[in-house]
Amino acid sequence: MRSITGAVLNMLLLLSTQNWSKVEAGNSYDCDDPLVSALPQASFSSSSELSSSHGPGFARLNRREGAGGWSPLVSNKYQWLQIDLGERKEINSVTTQGGYGSSSSVTSYLLMFSNSGRNWKQYRQEDSIWGFAGNANADSVVYYRLQPSIKARFLRFTPLEWSPKGRIGMRIEVFGCAYRSEVIDLDGKSSLLYRFDEQSLSPIKDIISLKFKAMQSDGVLLHRAGPSGDHITLELKRGKLFLLINSGAAKLPSTHTLVNLTLGSLLDDQHWHSVLIQRLGKQVNFTVDEHRRRFHTQGEFNYLDLDYEISFGGISAPSKSVSFPLSNFHGCLENLYYNGVDIIDLIKKQNPQIIMTGNVSFSCSQPQSVPLTFLSSRSYLALPAFSRDDELSVSFQFRTWNKAGLLLFSELRLISGGLLLSLSDGKLKLNLHPPGKLPSDITAGGGLNDGQWHSISLYAKRNHLSLTVDSHVTSASPLLGPEIYSGGTYYFGGCPEKSFASKCQNSLGGFQGCMRLISISNEVVDLISVQQGSLGNFSDLQIDSCGISDRCLPNYCEHGGECSQSWSTFHCNCTNTGYTGATCHSSIYEQSCEAYKHRGNTSGFYYIDSDGSGPLGPFLLYCNMTETAWAIIQHNGSDFTRVRRTHPDHPYAGIFEYTASMEQLQATINRAEHCEQELAYYCKKSRLVNQQDGTSLSWWVGRTNETQTYWGGSVPDPQKCTCGLEGNCIDDQYHCNCDADRSEWTNDTGFLSYKEHLPVTKIVITDTGRPHSEAAYKLGPLLCQGDKLFWNSASFNTEASYLHFPTFHGELSADVSFFFKTTALSGVFLENLGITDFIRIELRSPTTVTFSFDVGNGPFEISVQSPTQFSDNQWHHVRVERNMKEASIQVDQLSPKVQVAPADGHVLLQLNSQLFVGGTATRQRGFLGCIRSLQLNGVALDLEERATVTPGVQPGCQGHCGSYGKLCRNGGKCKEKPSGFFCDCSSSAFVGPFCSDEISAYFGSGSSVIYNFQENYSLSKNSSSHAASFHGDMKLSREMITLSFRTTRTPSLLLYMSSFYKEYLSVIIARNGSLQIRYKLNRYQEPDVINFDFKSMADGQLHNLKINREEGVVIVEIDESIERQVYLSSGTEFTAVKSLVLGRMLEHGHVDPDTALAGAHGFTGCLSAVQLSHVAPLKAALHPSRPAPVTVTGHVTEASCVAPAGTDATSRERTHSFADHSGTVDDREPLTHAIKSDSAVIGGLIAVVIFILLCITAIAVRIYQQKRLYKRNEAKRSENAGSAETVLKSELNMQNAVNEKSERVLLLIGTCDFTYTDDSLF
């Protein structure tokens, strides 16, 4: 219902927008009339003219009068051509030509506009392009559509560049139409109050449109309030618009909570700005100029309880005013409409519904100040000092985003180096250099680089100086030095190059920003005279215009990045966002556990970002790295929950909230190969379905918000459970166990695995209202396996083959990532074209990957060079990104290459062709090889699906082990899968996804592990185990042994390997703690002994041992630092290897005394990663994958050798206990065979009766205890939710015990009946 209501409201808002755009404009849509051709000569003016025949009046398009166009006296960037349209017009397009019959033309220009011929504003394209491309010759016409259009009276064309073979020459035309304008002027003390009829207004709807031009940075534009605190307020504050709509509040919030939505910036620039507010219920559209925000208001109701009046320009009703101070608006309002009512027209007609306070006029006053723009760090303005030499007095206002820059310099008399006034880290800093003394500094203000206007006043007379910043005075009196006298010239914003030597040197650079209201010696400087060249001089200035712009509006920092700016660019702070890059576009996290796994990561908690650079943020989950990677996502309902006393009119609803949003979960599920979630549902006289009418009594809800009535393990068929599919329900009349309505506990438990329905978000239970009726449930975490998009790939077999996809839209930010492998020398991976824009990624050469692009600033390309060839048939990863600030490319782990975007250049990437993958539209330079996991702005393309229907391209790609095989460690072998690979650890002493998890065991006293290679020599040829290579027919001339150990006991036997020919190898720790390796490869000789006695090896530390024998040469390495090579004299081969023993030896024959002694003591401590060639005895004992010839005696438990030997290592790891399983389990005979006489029968009968009575008594006691326990836990259920599972398990155990004992009793009774039916008893 909510979604339907929302859709209706959105449609109404859309219709309102369309209707009110017509009212706001007040014009016909046919707005392309030529506006210049019919103007009189007096409407044209210019900065200068080359001659009377080159005057501005000859600048009409396609006209040949005079010299065929306008040309200034000199060609420089301070020239301009101006047009007066007579009144404000709406201007939709402009065209330009060069001078007729000449080589004079303008190749680029600025377009400026004004309503008064003063305070000009530059027109911008794409929010950052200020210049227009002009003409390359005299006759061609260049046309530009202006979006948005300009509403102005005056236009000014300012040439930036012109023909190098000629001079500046222009002819122009502009197109548009008349513009309807009704204006009122408010002086900051006046306001309007509009009172209306309550029948004329809907309580849930408001539409307000207006334009405003502000003379001050603060003021209320409109306010409407009600008796209960509801209100709507639009306020200009520090040049930004703040809209607050408050509903359902008892009273207005305090001042610091007024901000509900902020839009716009620098709106106090004394230019017109448009506002549109549309409210329908809780939905609000807020538009300022070209920027729009949509949001929902806070509060309980859809309507606002407001009085039937609204104020404009201030708050007109003091009795109903807010409790916090708000200043009135100072400026002009134009075309003010409130719900279709023309407010200004009512004022003109003196309608009694309008109450005016203060002075209100119907013409807009024009600004009196002339602003300056310092365009670069080389800009400066030089002005002479006026009259009075005995004092210094300078004041001005400035605004900037830069933290540093020179504001003012003057070479004062008697002051060496003069006076420097500058910005440093947003603070004002005044430097004086008295002769013979250290420079003195005065610091004032702070945060002056916030883009707001700030007032500066500097006054000095003799030895007194004061510096005032925004009315805050900083004085220095008296000065330690000579008296201050005014200098000859003041330099604002910078100094001419090669002037004053080092006196005007400022390490902070020149000033970039705006200045106005410059006053010297209390006389206001006429800056128009400066522009005309009659006063002072300047460089790189724009006079009568403040060109500051807010580069953080809109905010191009993505994913919550914090935007800051300077005069020429913006910066994004990506700290704590989870993203990186110039605009915080790229995620620093992988998109799945599968991706983490193939970076070599082991199980643990990880942040994943399922859509990469898309809008969804990262979230934390657990990755369980097995042969495939499992993502485990938890929720708040992981405990057993018991439910009672519900019925259809009073249902129970359990809500599950996950550690990720539903959008994040959906993205994760969509990427996964398989997802599942276990739903354990227990019931006792609680049904899932009403069998009488077939209605569901319990159900669950998934992410699609649809009701599901199938249960764990079943396919998505309504009212089905696993037992119904398998045909093993406790009552075959039903499809679920719970529907049997038994009075004892049963369950319908299993895994839900239909991805489109996962995860479970709610469970509803309605049938626990009957006596003794109850249900319990437990929902497991969401488990998702693999990443089908990570392995999605295609093989390109011919250069002419390619895949095509819809146009890629990455106008402001675009990233492309993929894997490739090839043996080809070159080829295009990807290409997408526009009219002039394009992107292309290609293998330029065997060692070069290149990213080429053009967004309208000309083609660029950046390349990554590799010291090795990319055409090595290995997987390589490519990632490119282009945003407003830069373009970059990175391949594998090579250093990325970056191309900085040109300042104020084109930023929109505009493509319109199909996206070609693996080739180009021309079918040339196609790619040969494999491309995998292709993603554009976080969206994966399904290469395999498209490849199935494309000739020359095959879905999938084999050969992953060539790139990922190095992840398999410790002897693990990489094996290919259809999608990916896995590590085969069967020949390794390690386990885990990469064979990197060592198997360790704690050996108790007297314990051992014996691995038998063959039972005896005669059976060796039939052996099929791993020991087959050791059978008696072979001569074992080499072996590799590795192990790690930790112990404090001596003597100890670490390892003993024997043969059927009394040959052996023993590794022992002798009584003195030395490590000894004893080889006896000839039964008739004494063993060779390799002794390491440099320290005691029974020191409780972990030691690593490696033994490598090649015939008679043995190399021993200890702790990867000590190595010794020994030549054996006893022989070179083992014959018929019998067994390998770890720990205590059970047979001591034919060994030397030291080995026998160590074997008798065995080993107490920790052994780890034991391997003899490809045999791993600990792994065979503790992690058997198949039956193995291994015997475990005594206490051997899996434990980490990181813990000191002898401690409770079993508490740190999962424990496996092993014992000697020799002997029979039960040697007793059946009871019927034990009866030999009548007395035996009678005795047996008595025993049976007594046993039955004891069983019944025990059961009764147990039931009583369980009832008491149940009641106690039921009472505490709300206090301790975790006890529900314990109680339920206890009841289930009790129920099972009762059932088991009942079965035993029935068995005994049945046995007695069978036994005592002998006729001899009667």
Q: Kindly name the structural category.
A: mainly beta
User: How much helix, percentage-wise, in residues?
Assistant: 10-25%
- State which percent range the strand residues make up: 35-45%
The outline comes out as globular
**How large is the radius of gyration?**
44 Å
The end-to-end distance, rounded to whole angstroms, is 82 Å
Low-pLDDT runs? 1-9, 11-28, 249-259, 1015-1033, 1204-1245, 1266-1282, 1301-1322
Report on the biggest sheet.
9 strands, antiparallel
Q: How many helix segments?
A: 12
Please report the total strand number as a whole number.
Answer: 89
The average pLDDT score comes to 83
Pfam families: EGF, F5_F8_type_C, Laminin_G_2
Membrane topology: Single-pass type I membrane protein
Main location: membrane
InterPro entries: ConA-like_dom_sf (IPR013320), EGF (IPR000742), FA58C (IPR000421), Fibrinogen-like_C (IPR036056), Fibrinogen_a/b/g_C_dom (IPR002181), Galactose-bd-like_sf (IPR008979), Laminin_G (IPR001791), Neurexin-related_CASP (IPR050372)
